[in-house]
Give the backbone structure.
Amino acid sequence: MLALLEEHLRDMHATSPVESVHALDPDALGHPTITFWSARDDDGALLGVGAVKQHDAAMAEVKSMRTAAAARGRGVAGAVLAEIIAECRARGIRELNLETGTEPYFAPARALYAKNGFRSRGPFADYTDDPNSAYFTLIL
């Protein structure tokens, strides 16, 4: 799992300016406000991961979504996102937000979020206007 998270961070730093990289490192994913999911196949191979940061009782943020290269195109990200949304609903969270990149590399992520009902919004929480960031929200 650590290798997938490190790959994710390397790709984020290779794709976006350092000030626009908001992916969490493995240590940050252990914070009490973070819930982490992993998806595995029947043999236990890691397919993907996702995380949520709960900001308060009503608002959470999708963090660190990543699908293993060998599992891309198999619906892993959609399945992880569905679990995240279901858990947020179960917790009574009313607003699920996220930040992702604006570069072409992030087009599949933006399409996934749009397909799942997320709509464009402005910066939230501690984020600021950034031409390298796209912000989305889903009202639950």
Notes: The chain has three helices and six strands. The first strand starts at residue 34 and ends at 40. The helical segments are 2-15, 76-91, 107-115. The chain has a mean pLDDT of 87.
